[in-house]
Predict the 3D structure of the following.
Amino acid sequence: MLMTKERRPAIRTLRGWAILVLQDASAIQQCEEHGWMQDRADPYARDRTVDAAAQNPPHGLSPQQAVAEIREVLDSIGDTCPECSPEPD
């Protein structure tokens, strides 16, 4: 029986790579309704992401540059979807 491995999409930007690494470590999630990225505020997932970036940076980047990009993307993502209405108190 022929088995195929799921192919990952080609990453075209450094930000796209960082988002993929963050999603793989479950540090961010996507709003199911609107598609915005949301920070899960999980410190262990953040640590896993930083470790993964430092151990396997994209071609041409140092581990420090890869970690800096991860941190920059994390800092740009909020913990709520801007389009979702806030729940009433």
Summary: Residues 63-76 form the longest helix (14 residues). The beta strands are 28-30, 37-39. The two ends are 56 Å apart (CA to CA). Helices lie at 14-24, 43-55, 63-76.
